[in-house]
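FORM 7B - TANDEM STRUCTURE REPORT

SECTION 1: FIRST PROTEIN
SEQUENCE AND TOKENS:
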Amino acid sequence: MARRDGLHTPEKLTLLRSMVPYIRANGPVPIIELASHFEITPELARALVRLIALSGVPGDTKTYLPNDMFDIDWDALEQDDEALIINSIVSDDAPALSGREIAAILAGLQYLKAVPGLALSEEIDLLIQKLAGTAIVNPPLIEVRAVAPASLQMIRDAISTGHSLRFEHRKSPAEITNRHVQPYSLESVDEVWYLLGWCADRREERLFRISRMSNIEAHPPIQAAPTSDQNRPSSTSLYAPAADAITARVRVGEQWLSRIRSFEPTIIRSSNSSTDVEIELAVPARASWVVAASAGNAEVLEPHSARTAVAAWAARALSQYDQ
């Protein structure tokens, strides 16, 4: 929807400072396109383009000579309804952000602020206030929900203080194990959070999805756990399979391959319609995660245990609906 015409003088100046570099980079620009890009009416866009021709910076003589003024292609404006700057003066001012750009930045800042324990919360508040004050009009209010689990702050504290964590870990609906872990770091992929740490029960570094952790308690440090980057094992990626992991062969459509990249698939065959990959999985039931990540556009070829696990997972899902 186009913005109203009734802008105040400071708002018009801010808009002009953004329009000039846009026209210089893309000219000739149709007035309709210019109005759409800056969310103003075509009438206001034409008036501002005319105003550009009356703008400039006084030169050494402190007067406005021809070379000190912007100039536009009047024929292009009057006959073709296009904006084209044919004489441009040097300006060191950075172009102002549009309302759409400010709204996008504000949404990102609010997303960061929603993360519990963020140390820069006050700085983000100040930056949000500054950005909102530079908008040509009030940017749209965007509600950003907290995407981090409530237990995240406890895990952050344990990482900071060196404490270990005991918790229940749900590997599958029917399998829950007790774990004792020395936490190293937190990772996130989109809205999914993971804990990377040294598991005393498995005697190696493991990755845990936080949404599958419950009854989390802080305990003294695990003395046997590596305590430095030089001594502890280092994962080369977010997904690090265990030593006893199984290798599953999966066929996925070429356009869906990017959806399962977090499992680090190894391509073993590729055609125009599909790709066969091998993926290391901790347990056969994890094959259903791969199928879910591909939005159902993957077929588990082997081993049989993984195919059986996916079939059982699909049957449970279908049972929730009336057939």
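SECTION 2: SECOND PROTEIN
SEQUENCE AND TOKENS:
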Amino acid sequence: METVVSLAETLARWTGAAQEGGEPADSVESCVSHPRFVMMRWMGFLKTILFLPRWRLLPLVFLILPGSVSGQNVGMPVAEANALRSDLTGIVCDNEMRRQAVRDLLAKHGAGEHEITSMAYKKVTNLAVEVPGTSPERVVVGAHYDKSRRGCGAIDNWSGIVILAHLYKAIRATKPNKTFVFVAFGREEEGLLGSKAMVDAIPKEERANYCAMVNLDSFGMGRPQVLENASTGKLTRLAQAVARENDIPFASGIAAGNSDSSSFRSKGIPAVTLHGLAGRFSEVLHSSADTERAVNLGSVYLGYQFALLLVQRLDSCDCSELR
């Protein structure tokens, strides 16, 4: 993966006009041409700061981010960076207590007690909350809540859980076309057990209604990226197009590892894993260094903004375009 340093925030606004000069996006062209958020052009600023030492960039990120989100999105709220920072503090480091911490976080962002479902399987329990749409098509947005035995699992993967909770809050404030299913998977670190259990329980005849699965796994070190070896080609190209149109620093590549999107991909459901790792991530993940101190808010916030753009685009897509 390409090595990057910390990232600054971007500003979001809604526009119904397509950005000029965009490149075609292969077989997902009609998906890509739908009205969308367009990020303000901060590329010159990013080029200036991308290679600043991490300790010098963090104060700059915190100075600029709070209260900076502007624009409109037909009623969709966009979280401020401070809201994500609040949820990234006081992380529960005990695996036995993390599921309850996820439940509390979803409740904090609007899910009622009766809306949060425990999906109990033979070896694992997931948590899920749905935002109903007007069609039978479904989009799964997932992140695993468990951690490895070492460290606190701040980057891997409380960062993904925080992004998932804020995406839920944004989508539930709208009337989506598709039903969005937000799932916190258990026991990912032991072999993707939670996601495998969920997708195995989907009847074969119903899989066609699952339009896409977006997996959020490990943010806080670099720009948004796609884990290509755990993602399907058309969703990868769609993610690249969304980033290109909005001038979002982005990369994709193959890495030694796996993630929950692979469980859906193996059953023919379009899937993509987004992450925000870079540099010496192998020295942080699954180690005692994976704590709150390792998390860069700018990276997590840019990952959230990008994921929000992508899931919003998926809501307008024809599912057949992604298969």
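SECTION 3: OBSERVATIONS ON SECOND PROTEIN
Residues 1-27, 34-74 have pLDDT under 50 and may be disordered.
Strands lie at 12-15, 36-39, 117-120, 125-131, 138-144, 179-185, 210-216, 225-227, 251-253, 271-275.

SECTION 4: SIGNATURE
Preparer initials: ____
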